[in-house]
Amino acid sequence: MNRAVDRRPLRADAARNVDKIISAARQCFREHGPEVPLQTIAVTAGVGPATLFRNFADKEELVLAALNRQLRLQVDPAIDQALADPDAAAGLFRVIDATMRVASEEANLLGAVAGRRGLLTGITGGLIESIAVLLGRGQGQGTLRSDISMTDMIRLLAMLIGVVDTMEPGSDAWRRPVALVEDAIRTERPDRALPPQAPLPGTAFDAILG
């Protein structure tokens, strides 16, 4: 069981401390990057290190709790709307859009758990289950390719989340690759132009791109 995801009910004061620590963590990761020390987060939250470690054993637990909260706040409502939408394909991409928005906004949080795929399982289970339901419905409606499997969808979602490494945190550059994936898995290509291209940040690709 992951303490950062599945917690027992807390006293009101303890719950307030957890909320302050998670909010401070999001702020500090955004301002200082994935390597921000826990001490900085504790100071920003206005709590002592002992209070932080009483609730989160290490940075991994804190990062997962922060990611979990953003998924609950931003992706869960999109899942509910998608499952109620008679157009399963549209619902599927509503969920993917919401997930990518969180990934972009919380790019530094994701960077703190990069390469630790197993740690994310506990906070993505509901997301994957909803995508499976929507994929099956869309295939039954004939709007999504019948040869697409859930293995394909998990890999496509992982690829899309990886896009945040090639864009400015918080930007909507993810919209173009999501549109390309939509073109690939729908039975009929949507009648719309691709979202605009966003430049790659930094100079690493300058020689290739000219």
From TrEMBL:
For this protein, the record's Pfam families field holds: TetR_N (PF00440)
Q: Which residues bind DNA?
A: 37-56
| Residue ranges of every copy of the HTH tetR-type domain listed in the record | 15-74
**InterPro entries, per the entry:** Homeodomain-like_sf (IPR009057), HTH-type_TetR-like_transc_reg (IPR050109), HTH_TetR (IPR001647), Tet_transcr_reg_TetR-rel_C_sf (IPR036271)
Q: Which UniProt keywords apply?
A: DNA-binding, Transcription, Transcription regulation
State whether keyword tRNA-binding applies.
no
Write down the PROSITE patterns for this protein, in alphabetical order.
Answer: HTH_TETR_2
Gene3D superfamilies attached here? Tetracycline Repressor, domain 2 (1.10.357.10)
Q: Kindly give the PANTHER family that the UniProt entry links to this protein.
A: HTH-TYPE TRANSCRIPTIONAL REGULATOR BETI (PTHR30055:SF234), HTH-TYPE TRANSCRIPTIONAL REGULATOR RUTR (PTHR30055)
* Name of this protein: TetR/AcrR family transcriptional regulator
- Specify the species: Arthrobacter humicola
